[in-house]
Specification:
Blueprint: H1 2-35, H2 44-57, H3 93-102, H4 115-125
Helix pairs in contact: 2-4, 3-4
The structure holds heme C.
């Protein structure tokens, strides 16, 4: 009698442990596939927002595309280059975003631009 109860309890424990393990593994797999999802391409709305910000804050010095004004380097084709035009830093979001926020030797800083505004400006600069 006693031995029978013990066997039943052990069997019950094993079933519970197994189902908990399966549930945990299932959850883990779901989380992993979400994290591996590719970054979405910038939406047209974000690019349009960036263009509006650029016209407002940047175009006075950086005329896009026409290359006629000489106050600041042209940013046309910026993301096709390896190095930034003035500072010769590698072209990436961290360096360009940082330059916008901190400014350069001549360019004024824009420290009050928020994360989303910087993201919009970067999305627009990539289309030049
Ligand atoms: C008052 C003029 C002026 C304004 C306004 C201005 N810039 Fe500049 N920008 C410059 C000058 C001059 C340089 C080159 C020297 C320097 O960085 O000081 C430059 C350089 C840059 C560079 C190249 C940085 C590098 O590493 O070579 C980027 C990118 C840039 N500006 C983006 C922007 C963006 C985006 C805005 C608007 C938010 C903006 N600038 C507003 C004058 C300006």
């Amino acid at each position: 009698m006693q031995a029978g109860w013990l066997q039943l309890r052990v069997a019950l424990f094993l079933v519970l442990a197994l189902s908990a393990g399966v549930a945990y593994a299932h959850q883990g797999a779901g989380g992993k596939s979400e994290a591996a999802a590719a970054q979405p391409a910038p939406s047209p709305r974000l690019v349009a927002q960036g263009q509006a910000l650029f016209q407002k804050y940047c175009a006075t010095c950086h005329a896009p595309r026409d290359g006629k004004r000489d106050e600041a380097p042209s940013l046309a084709g910026l993301y096709q280059r390896k190095l930034t035009p003035a500072m010769k830093h590698p072209v990436n979001d961290a360096n360009i975003g940082g330059h916008i926020k901190q400014g350069g030797p001549v360019m004024p800083p824009f420290p009050w631009l928020g994360k989303e505004e910087i993201a919009a400006l970067l999305a627009y600069l990539k289309t030049l």
